[in-house]
């Protein structure tokens, strides 16, 4: 357990507490557990990094959250949150996106892609590709994520 990422520790704890494997908990309960445990990123990233602007918007018809640091340089990081295409969202990954924006001195666009099983494969990937393509029309792009 020592080498596991904090979010997996939290999900494992939840599965143990419920005495059921993670895959049997179901997507809604898994999502709620992940939202409840967003503080698991705190030991890694500390307090929320201050950014100049955080904007929820749409790019290519997909919901995104844009993080603009005070001293942003050119280029954009398009971020795909972890969660196996089933759990996680722009809110659960706010701390890492803020930290990435500040440390990289780049705007970060966190993609709030559609989640399975409600939106079967390849919906999430389609959303990520659509946002990346759209952003790349006006900026140089780097993609990142944590899954």
Task: Name the descriptors.
6 helices, alpha/beta, 5-stranded mixed sheet, 147 residues, single chain, 20% strand
Strand/helix succession: HHHHEEEHEHE
* Topology, number of strands: 5
Structural class by secondary-structure content = alpha/beta
Looking across the biggest beta sheet, what order are the strands in? 1-2-4-3-5
Question: What does this 3D model show about the protein?
Answer:
The two termini are 17 Å apart. The protein is flat. A hairpin with a 2-residue loop joins strand 1 and strand 2 (62-68). Helices cover 38% and strands 20% of the residues. It has a five-stranded mixed beta sheet. It is α/β, with parallel strands linked by helices and 147 residues long. It has six helices and five strands, in the order H-H-H-H-E-E-E-H-E-H-E.
